[in-house]
Write a structure and sequence with these properties.
Helices cover 45% and strands 0% of the residues. It is mostly helical and 154 residues long. The chain has a domain at 6-105.
Length: 154
């Protein structure tokens, strides 16, 4: 399943760039939608490698954030194949979205979905029990056994 369609990437990037990046022939003036959809599918597969550790795939109703991430990865990959383009901006966008996906995979950032791919429970619902794990939050944590100071010289 692709997180973005050709119309999504066309809404985010200039048509002239998409025409140039999707066609080998410089005289062509229309977007090669088959090429772009394949690139979007590839980007979606890359996204899934990050999400599969935390979510049941395929996501039935993916968040809009994944559409943007998919488009950015696709543009980077297409620009990287064309040496005539400056890929610095695309590389920055790519690095940013990969960092975002890594944070999602590590549980530091949420997509608004639970681990099973469903919407998170509503804590205001009387049928939902919210439990705090980890013991007494007011207790002081144990002192560190190892630190830079006591390991100095090893």
């Amino acid at each position: 399943m692709s997180y973005a369609q050709v119309t999504d990437i066309q809404a985010r990037f200039p048509n002239r760039d998409l025409v140039q990046l999707s066609n080998e022939d410089p005289t062509v003036t229309i977007v090669n939608t088959t090429f772009i959809q394949t690139a979007l599918d590839d980007a979606s597969s890359e996204i899934d490698t990050y999400l599969e550790a935390r979510f049941a795939l395929p996501l039935t109703d993916p968040p809009v954030t994944l559409v943007r991430i998919c488009c950015d990865i696709t543009m980077y990959r297409m620009q990287a194949m064309r040496p005539l383009h400056d890929v610095a901006e695309a590389r920055k966008r790519y690095d940013d979205v990969i960092a975002t996906l890594q944070r999602v995979a590590a549980g530091q950032l949420t997509l608004g979905l639970s681990a099973d791919g469903l919407e998170p429970p509503d804590p205001t619902n009387p049928a939902v029990a919210v439990v705090q794990a980890g013991g007494d939050p007011s207790a002081t944590p144990p002192t560190r056994v190892f630190s830079r100071g006591n390991l100095k010289g090893f």
